[in-house]
Q: What sequence folds into this?
């Protein structure tokens, strides 16, 4: 069952019923075979800063609209030719259907 109100700790902006969040992180990774080679594996460290923004808006008690977008860049220390940019969109429209049973005695 989808939640009606987002947890307060995960959303740090609020404009009426519209709630938003901004997040950031930095990842570090060591890979001992970045080129996936069986013959000549190449090891390298990578650093990846990422930022994200998300919004949630309860339209009614049965409708919830969500929009999220993230972006980041992966820097390789010894192999800059494989540096990469990433985008992560994530949106949803939730609709709850309720079925009521009426019984008469």
A:
């Amino acid at each position: 069952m989808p939640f009606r109100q987002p947890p307060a700790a995960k959303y740090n902006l609020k404009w009426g019923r519209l709630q938003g969040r901004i997040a950031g992180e930095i990842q570090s990774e060591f890979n001992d075979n970045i080129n996936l080679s069986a013959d000549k594996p190449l090891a390298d460290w990578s650093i990846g800063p990422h930022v994200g923004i998300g919004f949630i808006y309860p339209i009614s008690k049965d409708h919830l609209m969500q929009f999220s977008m993230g972006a980041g860049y992966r820097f390789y220390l010894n192999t800059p030719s494989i540096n990469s940019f990433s985008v992560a969109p994530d949106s949803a429209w939730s609709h709850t259907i309720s079925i009521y049973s009426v019984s008469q005695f």
User: Anything to note?
Assistant: The chain has one domain: 8-95.
